Amino acid sequence: MEQDYTCISNSGGGIFINIDEGIVNINPTEQILIVNCNSQSDGGGIYCEILNLGQIQVNNMKFNKCISQKYGGGIFALIQSGSQVKIDKSCEFYQCESYGNGGGIFVLNDFASECSFIINDTYIHQCNAKENTSSSSPTGYGGGIFLTGNGDYDPSSELLNLKGMKIYNNKADKNGQSLYIVMIKVVEFCQYGILGEYVKGNYSDTYSNESDLEGIPMDQNTFIFSTSEEIIELHKHLEPWWRILGILKSTQVIVNVSNPNGKLIFHIEGQSMIPIYFTVKIFELRDKTQEEIDQDQKEMNYKYNKNNLIAVKQISQQNIITPKYQTKNHQKTSIIRNLKIEKNFQSNAIEIIYPPEDGSHIPIQIEGEIPNDQTASFGLNEYKWLNYKQKVYGVLISNGRNIFTGKAGIDIKEDSNAAVPLEVIIEEEDVDDETEIDDPEKEDDPEKEDNDKKDDQEDQAEKDGKGKGLQVGAIIGIVFGILAFIALIVIIILVFVFASKK
């Protein structure tokens, strides 16, 4: 149902509502469209006063191009004495304007009497709060919504709830492009719940402009007599008030290509890590120095030889193996590693943020509660990007993918040393893919293939040579044995003949 009034009124250009102890539920089966309604004072579309526990619920209404000369281009709501206003079911405010505050909605709430204002499902876009230079009080605040009141608000009451607020492309000549809040406990309101959930609506910590949501910790009576300079000094973006920066203490990754739960298992220790919102950034911090590479190689060789010695002892108890061949294989592996470590090659810097934003992975599991120490862990099956032999990796954490912090919760933009180095522990490497990890550009190196073939041919030739040598030696031994046996018989016959003549 479309109501295009194109009308003008002092208060409530389209509808004027006064509720005292009553209940009004606007719930049409078809959307009500209020267009081009104008108010000389407050409430371009609707002006409503709700008193003495009164209630109003506005559903399925669209306010388009409604204008007020003072407050509330779409709706002006005065809520007193424990009353309630709820806006729900696909309400929309589009291109509404006020020449005061609250381009879409203006709410004046009596916080002391526990009044309630709730937005469950409302889209507010391209609304505008314009500055009125002839006004003695501050104007041009809250392009989408201006929320204010007197008295102390208790956030735990949850009487203010903007979770269903959807904002886009609103404007204000002064501050609060989509929302401006004037209340004594605005900071506590922002900090209640998880990351501003009761105040932010569809605002994104990652992508939205911080100027969309702003406010000031003072009541309405103080605000209307404040100068622009006083407001500028005290008002803030809302996001920093709810923001919680993670504190990273240590990071570790265990490499095990046989682990079915993830070839890379990451362990994080820190504080202020919020489940669901928690993300980890892993990036190339710097190239390893030659000294670090050499030291890593010494430790790797020591561990390799130690493990190999244990393995040889265990095998030798079951089978007799020629030590020469076992030693040769070990030396060959060690040499290949040394050659690859010494190579320098250019590669693009790696940066991974986990979990990905597309929702394809489950959130990182966190143990422990804020503000105590916490641990987090996750696994990755893709592991070949981790060039731990030549690169040092840094780790940062975030609650919302916007600001990534490290040591002591410091942003890396403020301190380049904030990242925590990633400790790499090797349980089982992928020996077959070792070349690809160290030097992807040499994956199909013909020189390497020729050298491998040459080594195989030399090994085979050595085995064939020893086999032939064994056969010749056996034949010569047999021949000498037969000759010795014949000589023995001849000697016996000669002795017998000599004895018979005597």
From TrEMBL:
Chain segments carrying region Disordered: 430-465
Compositionally skewed regions (Acidic residues) per UniProt: 430-449
InterPro entries the UniProt entry points to: Pectin_lyase_fold/virulence
UniProt keyword terms in alphabetical order: Membrane, Transmembrane, Transmembrane helix
Biased composition regions of type Basic and acidic residues, renumbered to the chain: 450-465
The keyword Disulfide bond is annotated on this UniProt entry: no
Stretches that traverse the bilayer: 472-499
Top-level taxon of the source organism: Eukaryota
Protein name: Right handed beta helix domain-containing protein
